Amino acid sequence: MKKLISPKMIFLYILIIFSTSIIFKNNNINNITYLNIGDGYAKGLDSFGINRYGYGDYLRDKLNDNNELKEYINYFTSNDMTIEKVENLISNNTYCVSKEQKKSFKGYLQEADLLTLSIGLNDLKYKFLSVEEIDSTKMNSALQELENKFNKLITEIKKYYKYDIYVIGYPINNLDSYYLSMSIRKYNDYLENNKNIIYISPKQLDSNFFLNPKTNYYNIEGHKLISDAIYKTYEKSLKNK
Question: Which helix (H) or strand (E) holds 128?
Fold first, then answer.
């Protein structure tokens, strides 16, 4: 004979689920320190070379609207950022002076709860400029060098930062260079299969997300879409912990 669940037990189950949800939400009220690091994509560079609202800014707004944000750090983004420059921020323990405080880069890494990173494209571009008559062999060599540098950087970051690193892939939109386009595609594949990071794919961004067809930088809607993808992935990871 099957036992029927009493109304009291049903009420108890609902109460437990509701209480767990409330605890989860309360634990995330204004307690997320978000650190955004990287190049023009992280800075918010748009299709016409102007720094506007980037995915980091939209993600900050979303966290703030949901009462989750404690602090947003965007000091370590620049259009010419490379892996080597981020490594120097760590090795030199660069200090950033704001109106509120003076803190080192390592200090920001240690205090961050969420970290997004867009890095590698400038490294590829600068490498290609230094190589005469680029071909498949030289391209693959440049990619291997980039992957090694990226692995080293992630290892260094994880010495101070203890959570998931969200790395944003690069779009490919009518680039003049065949080898650069192919390199970005292969670099994205490498990032997607890297177990040491959480990869955010740009594949959902078609030509409608680029105001200027001659560049591979997003418009505002593109940055919004990337921020939504990061937020959904981040919230899902919190619930699974």
Answer: helix 121-129
